[in-house]
Write a structure and sequence with these properties.
Distance between the termini: 57 Å
Strand content: under 5%
Largest sheet: none
Number of strands: 0
Mean pLDDT: 86
Number of domains: 1
Shape: elongated
């Protein structure tokens, strides 16, 4: 009975997540369904479960403001985190590479098979076509994204907390490092799926521009490399003020991918409708 109830909960959550998304991002959308093929039954992320565990961790971290002695056992977990986090990072970048290959391949195949013209004469708007094809590449790797987010949730918190304690000592700044850790962890959990969709849109744009799978993948990979280079380099600048740190670590990782997604969508649509 417990197993049946769990399966029912997962199925119900899956439909709820689909229905809460824009039409172009749902697995039931004809373009998404067409591109996913047999992969349309991919499991949806357990957003509720991840969010509950995030709230529990956030509560524990905030409690250390009142009981600073609890920081010591939490920070001791850094040893396990540092051993396993390289695997998470490698898995994440491998995942991004797969999404890039999927998105570039999907648009270049449409051009190669001359089916992009058929899509354009359908009642579906050009921007919806582009977004749906990018969403399909994103959905195909959803289970891997879920794994990366879950692993980071459990392994990343001690690392993030350690960096905040070193940068903003509790002796001088009180509970500031704990508060910043809570916000930084939330940003990171949102950032992973957002960046995954961003590289999918970059793949659509570069694939449309290059009309070649290999060139599109190389171009998208290069843009992704420079994106991470530019977002990571400012962290090594010494003596960042608190407002600048908040901008770089909490606001920029969410705002920049959204801007890139919007620009990539506009440019891809412009190239498709120009022909």
């Amino acid at each position: 009975m417990a197993t049946q109830s769990t399966i029912a909960e997962i199925v119900t959550t899956s439909y709820h997540i689909d229905n809460s998304l824009p039409t172009w991002a749902r697995r039931s959308h004809p373009i998404v369904r067409r591109q996913l093929g047999l992969y349309w039954r991919v499991l949806t992320p357990q957003v509720g479960w991840i969010f509950r565990w995030y709230l529990i961790q956030a509560g524990v971290i905030l409690v250390t403001i009142l009981f600073p002695a609890l920081l010591t056992p939490i920070l001791m977990l850094i040893l396990a985190s540092m051993m396993l986090l390289p695997y998470v990072i490698v898995t994440y970048f491998k995942l991004l590479g797969q999404i890039i290959a999927d998105s570039v391949t999907s648009i270049t195949n449409e051009m190669k098979n001359d089916t992009i013209k058929l899509l354009r004469i359908t009642p579906i708007a050009p921007h919806e076509i582009v977004l749906s094809k990018a969403a399909a590449a994103f959905w195909r790797r959803m289970e891997d994204i879920d794994i990366v987010v879950t692993m980071w949730l459990f392994l990343g918190t001690p690392v993030v907390l350690l960096f905040q304690v070193l940068a903003w000592g509790p002796e001088e700044y009180g509970g500031l490092p704990q508060i910043l850790t809570v916000f930084a962890m939330f940003t990171t959990l949102v950032r992973f799926p957002l960046e995954a969709f961003m590289v999918s849109m970059l793949g659509m744009m570069m694939g449309t521009a290059a009309r070649s799978r290999s060139v599109g993948i190389i171009g998208t990979g290069s843009l992704t490399f420079f994106y991470f280079l530019l977002t990571v380099m400012p962290r090594f600048i010494a003596d960042l003020s608190l407002p600048v740190w908040i901008g770089l670590e909490i606001i920029l990782p969410i705002a920049l991918p959204i801007v890139i997604i919007m620009i990539s969508t506009l440019m891809t649509v412009a190239m498709l409708t120009r022909d």
